[in-house]
Amino acid sequence: MNNTDFTTHPSKIILTVSCQDLIKRKRFKKFEPYAVLFIVNLEEKKLNEFGRTESIEDDLSPQFTNKFIVPYTFEKLQLFRIIIFNKNEGSQKYDSKNIVGIMNFSLGEVIGTKESTITKKLIHQTKPNKERGFCTIKAEETKKKISIISFRPIGQKLDKKDFFGHSDPFLLFEKQKKGTTDEWEKVHQTEKKTNTLFPKWRIINISLSILCDEDLDLPIKISCYDWNKTTKSELIGFFITTTREILNKTDEKFYLIHPKKQRRKKSYHDSGKIKFKNIKKQEEITFLSYFKMGIEMNLVFAIDFTASNGHINSPNSLHYTDDFSLNQYQESIMKCGSILSNYCEKKKFPVFGFGARIDNNISHCFSLTGNSEQPEVEGIQEVMNIYKKVLGWKNMRLWGPTHFAPIINGVAQGIVQNTNKIKHQYFVLLFITDGEIEDFEETKKAIVYSSALPLSIVIIGVGNNSFEKMKTLDSDFVELSYRGTKAVRDIVQFVPFKESRQKGYEELARRTLEEIPRQVISYFERKKIYPPKNDQKEK
Question: Domain VWFA, which positions (predicted)?
Answer without folding.
Answer: 298-516
